[in-house]
Amino acid sequence: MPGVSLCTPMSFDVFLFKFAKGDACELSRDALRSVFDKHEFKRTGEHFYDIRLQDGSEVELQAGGLTSSERFTTATFLIRGGSDSIARLIFECAQVTGGVLIPTMDQNPCIVVDTTQRAELPPDFTQPVVECRSGAPG
């Protein structure tokens, strides 16, 4: 395709939320830290962190409230390149928190990992909802 490089890096964000009775609720700091502790996790600024995975992939995290007492309802993964390990990390974060993933893309779906979250979504939620499960044993 003219003007398109196959080496063009992709860049998009994925939001992690959890809902209860239609309202955003707190994400578990301890659950997320248990995931992040498996990797090189470094604070780079107020509410910003770099996560370096074992295969060398990196993802930036914006998470106000992760390491403070402020209300913690959203974690945003700022993805600058794709890898299976980044996808697994984000999926695991949704699993351990019981949260949903909402990527910033056209017709962005709400990705439900914990199917009970479907009933907790706001009544005016209009994004398509898809369920995602791990094929891994256990």
Query: Which whole number gives the mean pLDDT?
Result: 88
CATH class: Alpha Beta
Rg over alpha carbons: 15 Å
Number of strands: 10
**How much strand?**
25-35%
Supply the number of helical segments: 2
Structural domains: how many: 1
Question: Could you state the order of secondary-structure elements as H and E?
Answer: EEEHEEEEHEEE
- Would you give the CATH topology? TATA-Binding Protein
Shape: globular
Please state the oligomeric state of the protein chains shown: single chain
Report on the biggest sheet: 8 strands, mixed
3D architecture notes:
The chain is an alpha+beta fold. The protein has one domain (12-131): TATA-Binding Protein (2-Layer Sandwich), CATH 3.30.310. 16% of the residues lie in helices and 30% in strands. It is built from 2 helices and 10 strands. It has helices at residues 29-36, 84-97, and strands at 12-17, 19-20, 23-24, 40-45, 48-52, 58-62, 75-79, 100-103, 110-112, 129-131. The chain has an 8-stranded mixed β-sheet with strand order 4-5-6-7-1-8-9-10, with helices on one face. Strand 5 and strand 6 form a beta hairpin. The longest helix has 14 residues, at 84-97. It starts with 11 loop residues before the first strand and ends in a 7-residue tail after the last strand. The model is unreliable at 1-8 (pLDDT under 50).
